[in-house]
Amino acid sequence: MNKLFMLGTFLGAVSVVGCSTNTINEGRNLSASGIAYTESVNALLDETIKQVIDFDSQELLITRIGSNPRRMLKEKNKVLSELIKEIDLFRYQMSLMQSYFVNLQSVSDSVVSEQTGESIGSISSAISRLNDLSKNNKHSGYDYTDIDEEQHRYIGTLAGMLMQANYAANIKATLKRDAPIIGTQLLLQEKQLDNILGILKARIAIGNKIYLNENVMAPYIDMDNPVDQEMWVENRRHWFRLQQVTPIFEKVQEAQKALRVSWEDILRGKKDAGAVSTMLIDIDEFVSTLHALEKAKAAKRIEQAGQID
Q1: How many whole angstroms separate alpha carbon 288 and alpha carbon 18?
Q2: Domains in the chain: how many in total?
């Protein structure tokens, strides 16, 4: 069963039947949204970086004549390696946040072990260290100094949101401690995501032009050689699909911001309405289409190789 359908069914079935049940559902809802968000964004980053590497390689092959190929390859490899490193750091941050929200649910359950409490404390400390790292190291993947005075004031108000919530003492203590830590991390992730998607968007825009010229336009206008019609149709479809990258990236940015709003709702004791999962549907469909197109092209290449043999 589709994970988004399961998530949507679960969120739609949740009702407020008392303070204790509402408390449990709050953590579970955000945990589910966080997991779905992590899976969707990871899949999108996987497929997008594949496209960027392919575009980069195609550009290198086209510009190899009349250039310094060794230096150009080293420079391209360095830039791409740094981008992949930043993406990997972002994934690590998302995995920490996912673990935090899963453990938050455990803390809010009626029977809580001491080990569970220690676990969420350790995760919170790890996230706090990431926040501190960003204050002193601009190469940590994001820059704490990017948080302006207004955002600092916003972070300072997060713990106060708990006054509106009716939580058990242990949950309230955990949330009071972690409110500014998680709030800071979510803000930093928004900024890092903006940077990563900005780079990916620029690279794909350049790569798309090359892809259009080399795989769609050139074979079509070449009257001296026959066109592999099936492959040409697939290439053209692939090019059109990649035009949707910008709106899909915007959906990801909206979903990231919605996670921060969901955190505010947790602090206020409100129920997550499932806005994050709704935003993920288009992202998942886009990734699935890209994956299907890649599989079709790979199958075609294998078929052609078999015919040559």
Answers
A1: 40
A2: 1
